[in-house]
Write a structure and sequence with these properties.
Blueprint: E1 11-12, E2 16-25, E3 28-35, E4 41-48, H1 55-68, E5 79-84, E6 91-96, H2 119-136
Antiparallel strand pairs: 1-2, 2-3, 3-4, 4-6, 5-6
């Protein structure tokens, strides 16, 4: 099963029931799914594009999941699970689902007057700063051991 093949009612990881596509990009697709083991809780299921990763890449993804899943802060989405889609071996990541609209609208990009720096660039930079801080200060305010 590839990222494009997930249909409504598909079950991923014996746990997540796909409801619909939330979005897609160069790296894969994001679905609204329900966690069948946690009271039908809505989750965002992110499936990487259809290419089986090499073992070294999988190891890196597992390490990143381990670190990211321990971050705790009211302004960060919680990372809940990581696995491989049965059959295709496409990696997937499960995140807390936050209902609502993307900042500044689903399709708009705001520039900040910094040589074409966009809202996405600013958010990506803020996430990297937060992650780097969290990793450098193991007992810091956003890192849960």
């Amino acid at each position: 099963m590839s990222a494009q093949a997930l249909k409504a009612a598909s079950i991923v990881g014996d746990r997540y029931r796909v409801e619909r596509i939330l979005g897609q990009g160069g790296l894969g697709m994001v679905y609204l799914a329900r966690d069948l083991t946690n009271g039908d809780m809505p989750v965002a299921l992110k499936v990487l594009a259809s290419r089986k990763p090499a073992e070294a890449e999988l190891s890196t993804l597992r390490q990143e999941f381990s670190l990211l899943s321990r971050l705790r802060h009211p302004n960060l989405v919680r990372i809940l699970d990581f696995g491989l889609i049965d059959g295709s071996h496409n990696p997937y990541l499960v995140e807390e689902y936050i209902e609502g609209q993307e900042p500044c609208g689903a399709s708009s990009e705001v520039t900040f007057g910094l040589s074409g720096t966009t809202q996405s660039d600013m958010i990506r930079g803020a996430c990297l700063v937060t992650l780097n801080f969290s990793l450098s200060v193991p007992n810091g305010p956003v890192f849960e051991p």
